[in-house]
Amino acid sequence: MGCSKRSESAILLGFLLLIFAESVVGRFVVEKNSLRVTSPDSIKGTHDSAIGNFGIPQYGGSMAGTVMYPKENRKGCKDFDDFGISFKSKPGALPFFVLVDRGDCFFALKVWNAQNAGAAAVLVADNMEEALITMDSPEEDHASLKYIANITIPSALIDKSFGESLKKAISGGDMVNVNLDWREAVPHPDDRVEYELWTNSNDECGVKCDMLMEFVRDFKGAAQILEKGGYTQFTPHYITWYCPQAFTISKQCKSQCINHGRYCAPDPEQDFSSGYEGKDVVLENLRQLCVFIVANETKKPWVWWDYVTDFQIGCPMKEKKYNKECANSVIESLGLDLKKIEKCMGDPNADSDNPVLKEEQNAQIGKGSRGDVTILPTLVVNSRQYRGKLEKAAVLKAICSGFEETTEPSVCLSGDVETNECLDNNGGCWQEKTANITACKDTFRGRVCVCPVVNGVRFKGDGYRSCTGMQFSYMHCRFSL
Ligand SMILES: *[C@@H]1O[C@H](CO)[C@@H](O)[C@H](O)[C@H]1NC(C)=O
Ligand SMILES: *[C@@H]1O[C@H](CO)[C@@H](O)[C@H](O)[C@H]1NC(C)=O
Ligand SMILES: *[C@@H]1O[C@H](CO)[C@@H](O)[C@H](O)[C@H]1NC(C)=O
After folding, report:
1. In this predicted structure, what is the pLDDT of residue 193?
2. Which of 154, 262, 312, 469 sits at a 20 to 30 Å CA gap from 330?
3. How many domains does the chain have?
4. CA angle 229-234-240, nearest 5°?
5. CA 424 to ligand 3 centroid distance, Å
6. Can you tell me the distance from the alpha carbon of 437 to that of 425, in angstroms, rounded to the nearest whole number?
7. Residue 274 falls within a domain, yes or no?
């Protein structure tokens, strides 16, 4: 019984996905960073490499290392310890970037094994001639989910022929040094960053949902500071599918869709006979969109973060509270206009378009440098798809790298992303010790030397050797007296 229901739903789900995939012809954009070989001379040059979808890319930064190609366990599928191989570098030496070959096991496992052996980054050499692909994390494999969250080093896929030239140089006895550079991975044209999160209100889909919920809770504080300060413009998005015309009156579409099959979400348990239905998820997603729209109209878009986190905590599926009553109590507790939100949601039983969800379906289709959104969750920063772990410090780094240099807000300079280079020899910048003023400014990209503003006056100069301002002599006198 339960078995046949399950397969029925799986077939329909597959069908919906297929329709969706076909209608957009998969425009998936591979996000790249650049890899520059600095030595030996024979292979010097810059190459593209594709950022892995796990681990922590150093958005906005760069790192240098020496490439090591292990003598054994070259695919990195086994524990390097078993071969007595270590990638720990001696103090003062460049860290090791480990080169492994594609094949035999998940990308993420190779990176995990290399990290455990002390690698600072991993380069995976493709095993066929093809355009670069994104190394994704395995979704269904529960054993791997345990370590994926603990991967902290960045990784990148390189093409086959470039991999071969690296190997050749290494086997020829050359020391191969490379720079991995993420500074241009996110465009940074101005002092405001636009970013969007494609999310879902479903709280019972296993590890992926748990990860997404945890991220939203963790990131809320930073997101709200950025938004209140006018540094960012954030927009939440939700994916829906449509039911093929011929099936709109089928039991499956009725349970997974609203507005006569126009907007659907997969059944949370993939079982039509029990628990919540896909339709419940679509409705809550629509409510969250409307919360954003109404909050944005009152110039407080950041209230969306409060709503989704309060709803997650107060109205979980597990406690059978994932419903309208519970949602409305959260809306009222936040002082949002319930009537406006209901008006925005419209009638889910109507045989007509819902303008809000229609716009979301249009937005799923990629434009410009952004590919189609087909995976949840997806984060897009200044129109580039974010790659890497969905975790506060890593995402903040990506957003911070989207600001024009020196315009990044102080949240970019706090805690996890601070560099503190000004503490060391004042970063090599100009300073006036007696008056305690300096041109050194820590940014998460590293320090910059820019003449400071003192008592409202911008000092002029190159920031390295000199900075002068009207009040300087006055202050200088006062402090030296
Ligand atoms: C991952 O990290 C957590 C917390 O630091 C730890 O408890 C867990 O054992 C780690 N998992 C693996 C597979 O190492
Ligand atoms: C939110 O409001 C701003 C102006 O205040 C507007 O530019 C933006 O398009 C709005 N976003 C949405 C999704 O309505
Ligand atoms: C100089 O100013 C910084 C902050 O502007 C402060 O943290 C530091 O303690 C000051 N140093 C001295 C010697 O007054």
Report:
1. 94
2. 262
3. 3
4. 165
5. 14
6. 14
7. yes
Closest by Cα among 321, 299, 300, 301 to 310: 321
Structure tokens at 299: 């110039």
259: left (phi over 0), alpha (psi -120 to 50) or beta: left
> DSSP assignment, residue 376?
S
User: Can you give the length of the chain in residues?
Assistant: 481
Which residue segment(s) compose the domain that 233 sits in?
Answer: 193-407
- Element containing residue 403 per DSSP (H, E): none
Q: Would you say the CB of residue 356 lies under 6 angstroms from ligand 2?
A: no
Q: Are residues 366 and 248 in the same domain?
A: yes
Same domain, 218 and 352: yes
Q: What is the pTM of this model?
A: 0.72
Whole-angstrom distance, CA of residue 1 vs CA of residue 23: 33
- In terms of domains, do 172 and 42 share one? yes
- Ligand 1 atom at shortest distance from the alpha carbon of 150: 1
pLDDT one-digit tens code per residue, 100-110: 999 998 899 99
- The rounded Å distance from CA 436 to ligand 3 centre is 6
Angle among Cα 32, 220, 378 to the nearest 5 degrees reads: 35
Is there an atom of ligand 2 within 6 Å of 233 CB?
Answer: no
In a domain, residue 21? The reply is no
Residues 198, 56 share a domain: no
**38-74 pLDDT tens trace:** 889 888 888 888 888 788 887 777 888 999 999 999 9
